[in-house]
User: Fold this.
Amino acid sequence: MRAKLSYLFLYRTARCSMRLPSKITSYSESVISKFPPVLTALHNADTGVLALYEATMNHFSSIEEFLDTLDCLYALHKVIYDADREVLCYVA
Assistant:
């Protein structure tokens, strides 16, 4: 069990660190700049993944960028996935 939790933590850390601002990646190109539109949409109502993408797609250049943003928000414990209702929920 402990190994599984360690693996999940390492996976979350590795996925989230790929698009952070740096000398090479500007803030506007980073995943952090994509947090506000997603969190605003989820703050208004719990939403399914497809509906959330459709509501925020003008902020992303690709679906991969959208999924990277969700990965990072999940790793930071800002969103959770409710499997029973099949929606993403904002965590205050």
The chain has four helices and two strands. The mean pLDDT is 84. Helices lie at 2-16, 35-44, 49-56, 63-75. The longest strand covers residues 79-82.
